[in-house]
Amino acid sequence: MIDFSLSSEQAQTQQNSRAFAAGFLNGARASYTALPNGPARFQCTRPILQQATALGLVKGLIPSALGGTGGSLVNSCLAVEELHAVEPSVALTLLANGLGLSPLIMGGSPEQHKEFLAPFLSAEGSPLASLVFSEPGGSANFFELGGKGMQTTASKEGDRWILNGEKVWATNCAGWDFKGADLQVVACRDPSSTFKSPEESAMILLVTRELIEANESDAFTVVKHLETPGHTACSGPHVKFSNLRVPESHVLAAPGSSKALQLIQAAFTSSAVIVGAMSVGVMRAAFDCAFDFAKTHDAGGTVKLMERQSVADLLIDIKMRVEAARVLTWKAAHALDNGTKGGPELAYEAKIWCSEAAVKSCTDAMKVVGISSYSNEYPLATYLADATVLPIFDGGNVGIRRRQIQQLFLAEDYDAWAPAFSATSQE
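User: That's the sequence. What structure does it adopt?
Assistant: Structure tokens below.
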């Protein structure tokens, strides 16, 4: 029997997340909107991240087996929806820690877990982690045989790897003062000619703030801060590594195997579901705003807008998208939690469908309100600006996510309906 009711633990997760959003996120946008630029807005949110750390939200991104309090991916989706429905910018900063830590959690040695997870297991400070992957020239085809591959390289010199290259769009990578995050999980490659494929040459290095400070002053620099129309209090600048010396103990995935690629793919598979939940949150907020408007405004007519069929139809469509997106996201999360066959496909589908539905729902909500929705008096234009990034970040839907599903389709043993009906774990 299929049961969509929440367990007591899941209901508590939802309630706690809703309470945190109401207590700490609700006024965040008003506090940072008046600030002149993205870096200032980002720094303005630090006290909220300190509070989230103190309350255990950062520790909750780490599995209990490694000292954290993290639960299932389904639980994470419940929390993400609540946070993103209230304040996407601060929520993204917090959640990017989870993506940044994922490769370390999945692929680190016991010694690396002990050393590099420590700041995130504490209830103090406002630690930031970042998965540093994308580059200014694009990243969708990094692993294409014969392609250019990653331009960020690490060359072995004695007992150190020398990291050089430029990265961009890595949320949190520069830290609060733009001199480096507590932990950057940097994807790069060994330029040695001994490797025959991009997969074999790929590496992942663990770059800590302490490591940056032990290098030359120009070893890590911010080239440019990026101003964005949505998520305006987040930080994912264009950064540069210049002869940053990295010890062997900071190598998470060495060249010569597929470990780096496997960890990157696994991290972005889980994050696809998280983007699905983000999308649900944004859609929910847009629906609530447009619904309240339609119930209280008549646009000069004799009845409230909700009694107009055209308005009701727009709201009905948004509501159905929210419900369908939530179920797809929960199903994908449940499949990944349980190792169900077809889980990755469901994750990619959740990322694609939910993110694109979010953009459509925000524009439909604006249609309900009309021209007033274009005024800052209402949050709908802001919701739309936040939603537009969802289909194009965390693996763009066209360049990466649909291509991932296409590759699954091309497999000789592909079973189209295994994701829908399978109840067994992958062998």
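Residues 259-296 form the longest helix (38 residues).
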